[in-house]
Amino acid sequence: MKCEHIRELLSAYVDNMTDAKENRIIAAHLAECEACRHEYDNLQLMCTILGNMGQPELPERFTEEFHKRLLEEKTRLFSAKEFRRPRKSGWVAAGLAAIALTIGIYVSSIIPIGAWIANFDEKPAEKERNNIAIEDIIRSIKGWGTDNNEVVNEVKIADSQKKSPTKIDDEITSNENNAGEKVVDEEPLPVVPKYIEDYATKIKVKDMEEATDQIVQIAAANNLEYKALPYASNAQALSANKSKEVNIKVDKNKSQSLIKQLNNIGQAASPVQNKLEITNEYAQVEEQIYITKKLINKLEGKNELSANEATDLVELKKHLEESYTKKIELDKEVNTVIVRVILEEDVSH
Amino acid sequence: MELEEQLVKRSLQGDTIAFEQLVIQYQNKIYALSYRYMGNEEDAYDMTQEAFLKAYRSLRTFKGDSSFGTWMYRVATNVCLDELRRRKRRIMPLSLDEPVATTDGDELAKELPDTSLTPDIIYEQKEFSEYIQSLLNEMKADHKSVIVLRDIMELSYEEMAEVLNCSLGTVKSRLSRARNTLRKKLEDRELLP
To answer: What pLDDT score was predicted for residue A75?
Structure first.
C-alpha cells in the first residue's frame, strides 16, 4: 500500500478503529517507512496533548442562575417554542379514533409515555461511506457546521408530494440553461419571513372524558387529524387542576371556525396565538438546494467522472431530493395551524 | 441517584427538580464542551445555559435509545455551532483581502487581530492549552467538532456518530482530515517535532 493510503488510515489506527488486516499492513509499513512513522508519532503526540488540555471549571453561580431561568421557562405562558410537531404516524386519523372511542377505547391513555416519546424523531439510518460524505462536500464549499435541529422531527411526506428525480433533473437543466454559472453571482432573493403558527386555547370543562370525546367528534366531522396527549404539555397547565391536551391540525384559513366550534365545549379563555419563526431554517434549506444543484451541474457537465465523483453525484442527487422533501415539509408546516386545546377540570362544580 | 430514565420521565411531566438533577450530572461536561467550541468562558457559560434550556424544551424529542448524556452533547453541539454560524454569517460578507467600506464611504485596509503567539513564549501548560485553543478556534466547525468530541471529550466513534447525526464512516474520515489539519498547524509552528 502506498504512503498516501496508509496516512489516511493512521487516525483510525491511533484509536484502534482499524481492522486486523489493516493493522497488519499499517504496522508493517510503519516499520519500514520513516516519514509515515514520523507522522504517526506526531499524531499520537497531538492526541495526547489534546487529551491533557484540562477542563475549565463551571462558575458556582451556575446552579442558582439556571434554576431561575428554568422556572421562568416553565412558567412562560403558552410559549411557541414549546410547541413540537409530532410525527405523522403519531397523529390519529380522526375517523378511526372516533370509532375506537365508541367502543370505549381511549386511544392515547393506553399509550405509555415512554413509547410515545420513542415515537418522535426517529433518525433515518444513514448509509455508511468511507470517503467524502455529502455534508463534507457541501460544507467544504460553504463552511457550514452541523445542522441537526432535533426540534424539527422527521415527517414522511406522501409519495405523491415528493419531487421525482426526473423533476429535479428538469429543474437543474432549466437552471443551467437560463443562468448557467452566473447564478452564483446573483443577489440573493429577498428573505420572506416564514412562521409556524399555533393557537393555544384553554377550556374549563366539567367532565374531561366527555369533553375529549366532543373534541374528537368535532375533529372527525371536519376530517382533521388530531393527537390527544395524556397530560397537558403546556407550562401554564402544569400548576392547574387535572388537565389534558388535544392538538388538532387544521388549514390556516379554517382555524378560526374550528376554534369557535371548540369554544362551545366549556368555559373558554380567549386563544393565544404563537408564532415560531423558521425563516432561517427555510433559508438554509433553500441554500442547500441551490448549492447542491450547482455541484450536480458541475459534475454533470464533465465528460468523464471518476469513481469518487460518480458516487458523489449519486449522493448529491439523494441530498437534493431530501432537501426538496424538507422544503415541502416546511411549506406544509407554514400553511397548517395546530390548535392546542388545553382542557382543565372545573373544580368549582 | 434515581435512574436517568425516571428523571427524564419526571422532567417530561414538568418536574423541574428532576430536570435539575439531570443538569447537575452533566453540567461540567457540557460546560467543558461549550468552552472548547466557543473558546472563552463567558460564551461557554451562556451556551451551557442555552443548551440545557433547549434540552428542557425539546425533551420530548429525546428517544431513549441513546443515553441522556449523548443526547445532551448533541443538543449542546448544535447550540454552539448554531451560535458560531450565526456570528460567522454576520462577519462572512467581508472577504479577507477586500478593503472594508465604512459608513461614510471611505475604505479601510482590513486589519485582522493577530491571534498567533510565538512559540518561544509558550512554556507553561496553561499558555500551551490556550494556544491550542486558539488554533481550534480557527478551524472549520465540522473539523473542530470531531476534534473536540474525540480528542478532548473522549467520546467513542459511535457516540460521535450519534451526536453529529452521521455515519461511522463520516466520523472516521472527518476526524482523519481534521487531525491532519491540526497536526500540520502544530508542525508549522514547531510545536511538534
So the answer is: 66
- Specify the pLDDT at position A207: 83
The CATH number for B148's domain is: 1.10.10.10
ipTM score = 0.81
> What pLDDT, on the 0 to 100 scale, is given for residue B160?
96
| Interacting residues of A166 by C-beta distance below 8 A, sequence separation 6+ | none
Could you tell me how far CA B178 lies from the centroid of its own chain?
A: 14
Could you tell me where the beta strands, DSSP code E, fall in chain A? 195-205, 226-229, 243-251, 267-268, 272-277, 336-345
Residue B108 lies in a domain: no
CA B193 – CA B181 distance, rounded (Å)? 16
Mark yes or no for CB contact B176/A15 under 8 Å.
Answer: no
| Contact between chains at B142 and A231 (C-beta distance less than 8 A) | no
Q: What is the pLDDT of residues A287-307, one digit of tens each?
A: 888 888 888 888 888 888 888
Q: Both B46 and B83 in a single domain?
A: yes
Nearest chain A residue to B75 by CA distance is A150
> What number of CA atoms fall less than 13 Å from residue A123's CA on the CB side?
21
Contact B176 A11 (CB under 8 A): yes
Query: In this structure, how many other beta carbons lie within 10 angstroms of the beta carbon of residue B86?
Result: 10
- Residue span of the structural domain in which B189 resides: 115-193
Structural domain includes residue B106: no
Q: Name the residue among B54, B64, B74, B57 with its Cα closest to residue A113.
A: B64
Best A13, A40, A55, A82 member to test B by mutation, with max B CBs in 10 Å, is A55
Q: Select the more confidently predicted residue: B143 or A189.
A: B143
